[in-house]
Structure to design on (476 residues):
């Protein structure tokens, strides 16, 4: 591998891989994408991430970086010329708030979302839906605070760390909405997030890599099979 | 020993309130915390390592949460919370990075090189998500799950034993974010193991971590921040006693 060669081990359907890809696109970094086969783990993946054996793994000049949010921060810090957009906000307080909400999205929001897909029976599903509603409302408020009137969580005219952390879930969110027959993001309940979601999905660093919803829904059915009636 | 304790108390008071006059003019830093919590102590360790004066406010988290806590951490209602000039930040490792980003004097807690920073963040996250969660459940979780959680925690320690190798600290020659994140392992774990009679980490199986914990706890600044051993032991005895009697 050349001194500055970049490889990304991942899968088209993974939220976490998408985060790394968006960050690479934002910085106009060329990379080789190594698609993992569903159901098995490649030698390279196991060797590069022996601790977790999970994707994404970014390999830069032969050195592996693991964990999606850590990869995004690494990309921001390793490629930081003034001609490239900054992914993390510049002010330490805004950085901290972005990190706080990114952790909330992974540790709380996504856990509730996933429990809709794994819910056994309507009662459990209803509880999970209510929880996601509540948590999404918090994110609506967070957006208003963080964006400071700008179109993105980043508080700037371009997408940043927190946009990536949450936006990478939009495909899966849509799949869950269709499956549950319930909208979490809409113009009435979450006007700001609704608008933000549109702009995020149309961003040039996002649009080419956002998975097709029908393809994702099909994949979801494989990952989360419905129990037999 | 009595003399040492008095010195410690005076030192702590000076750190916290002796510079209040100066603090009001320039910055106001407050920490909402819990004396026995390793998460809370992480924040205090970093502030003291960097020589940043702050006001400490003990929170009755398990009893009555104060209006201040509810105002500054409405999402999680937990400690630690850092309040800097009226603006609050929650989640101990987020706070640690904030302190690092904001105050440029004193020792650094994260490496400068982007790759080394990514590694430090990786291991700090590993400590929190793999080891701390399992430890918590191994000692205080539902009885039926404790054996499984002990194995998880044990596995986590094996990775950490390998990672530290013969480095003095996870951060190299000086204490860094991973050492701070692993404070429970360095200090609390020994006490909890003694009180509970349950051992996950032995000196024989984990000689690197044992050596590291001695260096960590022995650090002049860290040792002043750590809660007193007897007080912690008394705190831990209560739940174990009731677990024993409930069979």
């Amino acid at each position: 591998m050349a001194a500055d060669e970049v490889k990304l081990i991942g899968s088209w359907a993974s939220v976490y891989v998408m985060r790394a890809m968006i960050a690479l696109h934002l910085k106009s970094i060329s990379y080789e994408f190594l698609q993992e086969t569903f159901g098995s783990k490649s030698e390279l993946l196991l060797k590069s991430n022996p601790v977790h054996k999970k994707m994404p793994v970014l390999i830069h000049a032969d050195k592996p970086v693991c964990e999606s949010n850590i990869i995004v921060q690494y990309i921001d810090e390793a490629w930081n010329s003034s001609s490239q957009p900054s992914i993390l906000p510049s002010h330490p307080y805004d950085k901290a708030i972005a990190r706080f909400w990114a952790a909330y999205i992974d540790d709380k929001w996504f856990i509730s979302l996933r429990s809709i897909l794994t819910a056994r029976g309507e009662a459990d599903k209803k509880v999970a839906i209510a929880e996601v509603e509540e948590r999404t409302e918090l994110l609506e408020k967070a957006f208003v605070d963080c964006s400071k009137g700008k179109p993105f969580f980043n508080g700037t005219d371009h997408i940043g760390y927190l946009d990536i952390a949450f936006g990478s879930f939009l495909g899966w969110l849509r799949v869950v909405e269709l499956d549950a027959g319930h909208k979490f993001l809409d113009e009435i309940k979450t006007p700001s997030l609704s608008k933000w979601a549109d702009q995020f999905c149309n961003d040039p660093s996002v649009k080419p890599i956002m998975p097709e919803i029908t393809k994702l829904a099909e994949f979801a059915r494989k990952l989360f099979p419905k129990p037999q009636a | 020993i009595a003399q040492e304790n008095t010195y410690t108390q005076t030192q702590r008071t000076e750190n916290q309130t002796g510079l209040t006059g100066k603090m009001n003019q320039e910055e106001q830093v407050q920490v909402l915390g819990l004396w026995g919590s390793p998460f809370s102590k992480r924040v205090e360790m970093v502030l003291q390592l960097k020589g940043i004066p702050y006001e400490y406010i003990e929170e009755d988290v398990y009893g009555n949460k104060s209006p201040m806590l509810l105002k500054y951490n409405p999402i999680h209602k937990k400690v630690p919370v850092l309040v800097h000039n009226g603006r609050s930040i929650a989640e101990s490792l987020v706070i640690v990075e904030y302190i690092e980003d904001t105050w440029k004097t004193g020792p650094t807690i994260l490496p400068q090189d982007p790759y080394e920073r990514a590694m430090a963040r990786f291991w700090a996250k590993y400590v929190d998500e793999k080891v701390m969660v399992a430890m918590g459940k191994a000692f205080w979780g539902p009885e039926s799950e404790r054996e499984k959680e002990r194995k998880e925690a044990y596995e986590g320690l094996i990775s950490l034993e390998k990672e530290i190798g013969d480095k003095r600290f996870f951060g190299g020659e000086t204490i860094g974010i991973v050492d701070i994140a692993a404070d429970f392992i360095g200090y609390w774990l020994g006490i909890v193991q003694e009180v509970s009679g349950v051992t996950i980490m032995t000196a024989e199986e984990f000689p690197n971590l044992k050596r590291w914990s001695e260096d960590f706890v022995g650090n002049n600044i860290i040792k002043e921040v750590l809660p007193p051993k007897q007080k912690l032991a008394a705190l831990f005895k209560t739940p174990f006693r009731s677990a024993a009697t409930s069979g």
Observations:
- The two ends of chain A are 52 Å apart (CA to CA).
- The domain at 92-223 of chain A is CATH 1.20.1050.10 (Glutathione S-transferase Yfyf (Class Pi); Chain A, domain 2).
- The longest strand of chain A covers residues 6-10.
